[in-house]
């Protein structure tokens, strides 16, 4: 069973690496949910969704194996730099106009990670105008 699920995770990663187009915020949300539901991620994180609107998705990570390991070895600062902080840089690469807001992380000792991806209004208007042409 685990082998089959690992294969599905690899296929999902291949889609991402092969440039499966993320053409809208809805595509991005589907992609994120698929990633969170993958076999690999389901063994690393416990995630609960709190908000899902046309321009925003918010979830809380209440368990993170990576944060546990880095904190257990006294290297949470390194873990934050290597694991958490890059999310802010990679987020706009999925689709121009997507931003990330996070004020709490398990890695830094908080009770949960509060993660919100949102689609900027400016970019939403730009896409609306281009689709009208």
Sheet with the most strands: spatial strand order: 1-2-4-3
- The span between the termini is 49 Å
Report the uncertain regions. Answer: none
Strand content: 15-25%
What is the tally of helical segments?
7
Assign the structural class, choosing from mainly alpha, mainly beta, alpha/beta, alpha+beta, or little secondary structure: alpha+beta
Order of helices and strands: HHHEEHHHEEH
By oligomeric state, this entry counts as single chain
Q: How many structurally independent domains?
A: 1
Q: Averaging pLDDT over every residue, what do you get?
A: 85
Percentage of residues assigned to helices:
40-55%
- Beta strands, count: 4
Radius of gyration, rounded? 16 Å
For the biggest sheet, the summary is: 4 strands, antiparallel
- Shape assignment: globular
Structure description:
- The longest helix is centred in the N-terminal third of the chain and has 16 residues, at 2-17.
- The chain is an alpha+beta fold.
- It is built from seven helices and four strands; from the N terminus they run H-H-H-E-E-H-H-H-E-E-H.
- The model has no long low-confidence stretch (mean pLDDT 85).
- The chain starts with a helix and ends with a helix.
Short recap of the structure:
The chain has 133 residues and is of the alpha+beta class.
Write a concise keyword list for the protein shown above.
133 residues; alpha+beta; single chain
Map the helices and strands.
Elements lengths: L1 H16 L7 H13 L1 H6 E9 L2 E9 H8 L3 H9 L1 H9 L3 E5 L10 E7 L1 H12 L1
Antiparallel strand pairs: 1-2, 2-4, 3-4
């Amino acid at each position: 069973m685990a082998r089959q699920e690992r294969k599905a995770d690899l296929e999902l990663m291949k889609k991402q690496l092969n440039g499966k187009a993320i053409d809208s915020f809805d595509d991005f949300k589907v992609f994120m949910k698929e990633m969170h539901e993958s076999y690999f991620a389901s063994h690393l994180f416990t995630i609960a969704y709190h908000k899902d609107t046309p321009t925003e998705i918010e979830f809380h990570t209440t368990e993170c194996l990576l944060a546990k390991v880095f904190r257990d070895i006294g290297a949470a600062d390194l873990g934050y730099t290597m694991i958490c902080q890059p999310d802010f840089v990679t987020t706009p690469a999925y689709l121009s106009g997507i931003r990330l807001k996070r004020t709490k992380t398990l890695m830094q000792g908080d009770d949960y990670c509060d993660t919100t991806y949102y689609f900027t209004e400016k970019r939403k208007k730009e896409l609306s105008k281009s689709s009208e042409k």
